[in-house]
Design a protein that fits this description.
Strand content: under 5%
CATH class: Mainly Alpha
Number of strands: 0
Order of helices and strands: HHHHHHHHHHH
Low-confidence stretches: 1-22, 218-227, 229-234, 282-294
Shape: globular
CATH architecture: Up-down Bundle
Helix content: over 70%
CATH topology: Growth Hormone, Chain: A
Structural class: mainly alpha
Largest sheet: none
Number of helices: 11
Mean pLDDT: 81
Distance between the termini: 63 Å
Radius of gyration: 23 Å
Length: 294
């Protein structure tokens, strides 16, 4: 409906059908929600690659063997498994928005804690700090995919590939800044503190545009509660029962294979490029040694 040319702005607004105003408002909120999910995926990728970019320096600081580095890598893996096992219950209980807010901001504390542990040459403390980071990362991973799926449904378009592309964009940025930190010999602790602070601050700004809960608005779209599924059975029994299905096992096998390949590449390629192709890395120095600051 087109307002009369002589109508005032206030009158023009009254002449616009309520359904149109509602549709425009909903469209804008959904787009803001989508952009926020884009940013969360990018921040998650940035957080992981920030650690991966400094692996050569980590090994130099710890003076670790390949076997000891394998144990260090185990920290994030163990933390991720713990987080994934509890993520379904946690996200259902507090919602994706709160899960992202809490676990992305608190989880990145594990990065400077790991740098501190590396500075005192403690492999056990490094593993513990990285496990803490792994829990936060995996919880965030599940939560951002849940709210991303809800946003897809709200907008009515396939967006998940783009969400995951933004994760890759975040990893590229993190690796690039990490390479710059390596080249300029920025201390590991300083790098982790700055990166963690940036991630936490941006997360607190971004989550304001995420809807409360999971983003599923209607009862039909609401996921099953932590205690019951749609048939009224126990949620835990239903979740475990899924693993008796052949297709679930086959999907799990595919994901396991891809995760194995991706994890091996992420963890060992930086060291392989240095040891196998004689690329250089800055000399090892204590993370808090101000004499190594540029």
């Amino acid at each position: 409906m087109t307002p009369h040319p002589s109508a005032s702005p206030e009158t023009a607004e009254l002449l616009v059908p309520p359904t149109r105003k509602h549709t425009t408002s909903t469209h804008g909120k959904n787009n803001s929600w989508r952009n926020a999910v884009f940013a969360v995926f990018a921040l998650a990728g940035f957080s992981l690659s920030t650690w991966l970019s400094r692996i050569p320096t980590v090994r130099d600081h710890l003076d670790a063997t390949s076997g000891e580095m394998g144990l260090v890598y185990l920290g994030i893996s163990v933390g991720s498994i713990i987080g994934l096992l509890g993520s379904g219950y946690v996200v259902t209980l507090i919602g994706a928005k709160k899960a992202i807010t809490w676990f992305l901001t608190i989880g990145v504390i594990g990065l400077p804690l790991a740098a501190l542990a590396i500075g005192i040459h403690s492999i056990p403390l490094t593993i513990a700090a990285l496990a803490f980071f792994g829990i936060g990362f995996s919880m965030t991973d599940v939560a951002m995919n849940v709210t991303g799926a809800a946003n897809e449904r709200a907008i009515g378009r396939t967006l998940m590939p783009i969400f995951h592309a933004l994760f890759s964009v975040g990893t590229v940025i993190g690796i690039g800044l990490g390479a710059l930190a390596e080249a300029t010999q920025i201390p590991l602790l300083l790098h982790m503190v700055i990166a963690g602070a940036i991630i936490a601050a941006l997360t607190l700004l971004i989550v304001r545009f995420l809807p409360r809960g999971d983003g599923f608005d209607t009862p039909d779209e609401q996921p099953a509660s932590a205690d019951q599924d749609s048939t009224g059975r126990s949620g835990w029994k239903s979740a475990l029962g899924v693993w008796t299905k052949k297709r679930t096992l086959l999907i799990g096998l595919i994901v396991l294979g891809m995760a194995f390949v991706e994890g091996a590449a992420n963890d060992w390629l930086p060291l392989a490029m240095i040891d196998g192709y004689d690329l250089t890395t800055p000399s090892a120095r204590p993370p808090w040694d101000s004499s190594s600051w540029p």
